[in-house]
Amino acid sequence: ADDPHRNTSKVTAxxxxxLFSVALLLAPASALLRQPALLRTAPAxxxxxxxxxxxxxxSKTFRKAVLCVRRSSTIKGCSPGDxxxxxxxxxxxxxxxxxxxxxxxxxxxxxxxAWKKYNELLDDKPLLMxxxxxxxxxxxxxxxxxxFIQKQDFDWYRLFRLASxxxxxxxxxxxxxxGMLDSAIPGKGAQPVFTKVFIDQVLWNPIFxxxxxxxxACLEWxxxxxxxxxxxxxxxxxxxxxxxxxxxxxxxxFRFIPSSQRVLYINSIQIGYNCFLSLISNRDAExx
Length: 288
Hints:
Layout: H1 4-41, H2 60-71, H3 103-108, H4 110-124, H5 126-150, H6 156-184, H7 190-218, H8 224-243, H9 246-256, H10 262-281
Helix pairs in contact: 4-5, 5-6, 5-10, 6-7, 7-8, 7-9, 8-10, 9-10
């Protein structure tokens, strides 16, 4: 027969087991029920925002483009198109056209190119270039005197005498004298300019006349006495004629003209004065 105490313990344990089983069944469901609460309480993520467009003004790219424009006479190495320098809708506009400075104009202008080349040679070989400049000045002066003033048969040996004096004597001596004068009396004020003009016209002018007439007369091969007579008879005419032209011309020279350009300036003025020198240097010494 069954033990009544054992049956009673089974009956008593039944409700406990049942409650435990119900708790196990309900436990996952309650955990699932808590998930929406967790989702509701979680903070919402911040929405993603697109990066704001970067302004080209003030950016490094723009500053680099501006430096490219400033430092180069012709914009190179800048791609045409979207906002780039030199093309499309970028800086400089146009259809990719390059921006060029005045250097291109120098290449297309033959006078500007010749002037640039002359100054380069004047820096490299100043004595030779000043001698050549005086050669042209005296040659042009004598050609004008023979063709337009005297209107006689052209004397080529006379042209040689005048042109060779310009190359061998005038250009070289002027290079030395005016360089020395600028070094000894610097400045462009009234006092240094007046002093230079005075020295040039009172001291250098007669020295120049003696060199000129003695050189030209020597090449006429008429003897030493002819050289002396020619120089003595024509020197005063040359000196006083110089005083009518060169004081004002040299005042402009010493005030405004750079030292390296003095011989060129003098010869540009002296083309007309050389006509005068050509005439008096070829007069007969006895008739003067």
